[in-house]
TrEMBL record:
Belongs to the SRP72 family. Residues 557-566, 576-599 have a biased composition (Basic and acidic residues). It comes from the Eukaryota. Residues 549-620 are annotated as: Disordered. Residues 557-602 form the Signal recognition particle SRP72 subunit RNA-binding domain. Its main location: cytoplasm. The lineage of its organism: Eukaryota, Fungi, Dikarya, Ascomycota, Pezizomycotina. SUPFAM superfamilies: TPR-like. Component of the signal recognition particle (SRP) complex, a ribonucleoprotein complex that mediates the cotranslational targeting of secretory and membrane proteins to the endoplasmic reticulum (ER). This is Signal recognition particle subunit SRP72. GO terms for biological process: SRP-dependent cotranslational protein targeting to membrane. Residues 600-609 have a biased composition (Basic residues).
Length: 651
């Protein structure tokens, strides 16, 4: 009978062996023959790793004893990485001797662990160093380039794209010749919201994959599905729903080998198909995707999107109390300063649940007491500010934001100061100040933010520094101009060539320190070229147009506005008399009382008598004055007229 150890040794000497099951059988036989055969134990561990039996590989390393574990540090770290134990895998790799840890395989593994642990800056740095060296194995250079592009794309997703050089953010010609690199370049475009470019790159990646001669039909199918799933998302974001739906028909979720890709494809299918406004049916379908575990978990930004989708469904199903309770628990558990911004979307969802999706003054009254209990809830704060703006009441919004910022300034921890001057909160403060016409407050806020980030080795946002420098440069205060120059100097230390920063630096120091701006003059367009074709005399004759300063908004109405808003009396429509005939001259005595008109004829005997008395040509009564007895005065009486005596009749 042949010696198992000798058979194993001869098998290992065969360089073309690919039958890992056969290697595992021979290694087990050699171990049964001699438990102290370290080479046999090592071979078994490698064979198990090749067969993707990572848990069995870890048990085999533990069974081999301390000697085997010290020899299989790389294999153990790799098995821990594949099973999702990232922290333990990182600790194992760091315990390796310097002679092993500085080797190319160890650095490659540390880069993979950092990438999966979402330490994308560390992963990109390690891959960048590996790419600069001579590759150790055939084809490794292409793998390192693919992984470096993937790490750069993840940095873009994390909002750290400013850490990359401009040369790394622009694809090279070599990146367009492989479907893997083209796909990663497309992902970087998606992260930067350059969806049109991403669609073109994904189309190219798909064409290159289909035309590849190195892949079998099954391998092509497995590689095409992630590209198609990503392209479906891009097309849906571009509003090309018909094209996205057509691509969705090509995706069979059961054929996707990777669990994370299946979860993303399932979410895309739900979003495209729709459920005719039935959130209960949508939730039922979403639960069929199952849960991911181990190394198949999605990245945090992917999980946050799916989590918000679930909460959105709960709100549509009017599960307000449960949604509020769940989001409150997660918000209160976020005690670290960095987590304040990560859970901000949950604060918005919690506010929506508490107000039952209302957006009025009553909604503000409901969630203001919650802000007192959770004063560090950024999402809730921004929701209240947005509601105030929607109700055209920016004053309380500014007050709330200033109180929140002062509370963060009172904490001396550096992490809280980073949150205080985070680009988003600074942008909100600047927008509110500009809405009220408070230009000095805008300049002061940007100056403080610039001073904070200039003291940091890395800036959170180059756009924030650029806006602060431009605003400070407009000031007539020499201190603000000096701060603008320091801001542009900080920008020029960042990777890439920022023409705006170079121009700002020249404008800041041109009259004070020419030696500092001289190296940047060659980067700027000459003045002669900028002013070529400009008629200076015509501009002088026309004059300078001055922009009107924004008027501050106030809740008090001016006199003119109050006069304009004063309700005018509604004029009653003129009524015409019943017997009105168009063209007929109206009666000139129509405004006199009836008894004063010339046409007045009283009725009855007494009336006729009175009429005769007042009628022109009637009998004029004669009056006489009689003296009263005793000198008591005089009185006028009607004079008696002589008339015929009436004959007495017979009695």
């Amino acid at each position: 009978m042949s010696d198992p150890a000798a058979t194993l040794a001869s098998l290992l000497r065969a360089s073309t062996i690919q039958d890992h099951d056969e290697a595992l059988k021979l290694a087990n036989a050699a171990i049964r023959a001699s438990r102290t055969n370290i080479d046999a134990h090592h071979t078994r561990v490698v064979a198990l790793l090749k067969l993707d039996r990572f848990d069995d590989a870890l048990r085999a390393i533990a069974d081999g004893g301390h000697e085997l574990e010290s020899k299989c540090i790389l294999e153990k770290a790799y098995a821990l990485y594949k099973t999702g134990n990232l922290q333990e895998a990182r600790d194992t790799a760091e315990k390796a001797p310097s002679t092993q840890s500085n080797t190319r395989p160890f650095r490659h593994l540390r880069a993979q662990i950092a990438y999966r642990a979402e330490s994308f800056a560390d992963a990109a740095s390690l891959y960048r160093d590996l790419a600069a060296e001579t590759p150790g194995l055939h084809g490794e250079e292409n793998d390192v380039r693919i992984n470096l592009l993937a790490a750069n794309a993840q940095l873009e997703w994390a909002g750290l794209g400013q850490q990359l050089d401009d040369s790394e953010r622009q694809p090279s010609r070599a990146d367009l010749e492989s479907f893997e690199t083209a796909y990663n370049v497309a992902c970087a475009h998606v992260a930067r919201a350059e969806l049109a470019k991403a669609s073109i790159m994904l189309k190219r990646a798909r064409d290159l994959c289909e035309a590849s001669e190195d892949l079998s039909p099954d391998e092509k199918k497995a590689e095409l599905l992630p590209i198609i799933v990503q392209h479906i998302y891009v097309l849906s974001q571009l509003g090309k729903e018909s094209e996205a739906t057509a691509l969705q028909r090509l995706v069979v979720q059961s054929d996707i080998p990777e669990a994370p890709t299946r979860a993303v494809a399932h979410n895309n299918q739900i979003a495209l198909a729709g459920t005719d406004g039935n959130p209960y049916f949508t939730q039922r379908i979403s639960e069929l995707a199952g849960k991911l575990s181990g190394n198949d978990k999605l990245f945090e930004y992917q999980q946050s999107v799916l989590r918000r989708n679930r909460y959105a469904l709960d709100l549509q199903m009017q599960k307000f109390q449960g949604t509020e309770s769940s989001t409150n628990t997660q918000i209160l558990s976020a005690s670290s300063p960095s987590a304040l911004l990560n859970v901000a979307p949950l604060g918005v969802i919690s506010a929506a649940a508490r107000t039952e999706m209302a957006s009025s003054k009553a909604a503000i009254r409901k969630i203001l007491p919650v802000l007192e209990k959770r004063p560090n809830d950024v999402g809730l704060l921004l929701t209240i500010i947005q509601l105030y703006i929607q109700t055209q009441n920016p004053g309380p919004a500014v007050t709330l934001l200033e109180k929140f910022l002062k509370r963060l300034e009172a904490v001396t921890t550096a992490d809280y100061s980073d949150v205080r001057f985070s680009p988003g909160l600074v942008a909100v403060a600047v927008a509110l100040y500009r809405l009220q016409g408070r230009q000095n407050s805008v300049r002061a806020e940007l100056a403080r933010a610039s001073a904070h980030w200039r003291s940091k080795p890395e800036c959170a946002s180059t756009s924030l520094l650029r806006a602060a420098g431009v605003e400070l440069l407009h000031s007539s205060n020499p201190e603000d101009v000096a701060a603008a120059g320091a801001t542009f100097e900080k920008l020029l230390t960042q990777p890439g060539q920022d023409i705006t920063a170079a121009a700002g630096l020249v404008a800041s120091f041109a009259t004070r320190d020419f030696a500092k701006v001289e190296p940047y003059l060659s980067k700027l367009t000459p003045v002669e070229r900028l002013t070529a074709g400009t008629d200076v005399q015509a501009l002088i004759q026309v004059g300078v147009c001055q922009a009107t300063a924004p008027t501050p908004t106030s809740r008090k109405r001016g006199a003119d506005e109050a006069e304009k808003e004063k309700p005018t009396k509604r004029r009653r429509k003129q009524k015409l008399p019943k017997d009105y005939v168009e063209g007929k001259q109206p009666d000139s005595e129509r405004w006199l009382p009836l008894r004063d008109r010339s046409t007045y004829r009283p009725k009855g005997k007494k009336g006729k008598k009175r009429a005769q008395e007042v009628t022109q040509g009637g009998v004029v009564k004669e009056e006489e004055t009689l003296e009263l007895v005793g000198g008591a005065g005089a009185v006028k009486v009607e004079k008696a007229t002589a008339g015929k005596k009436k004959k007495k009749g017979k009695k």
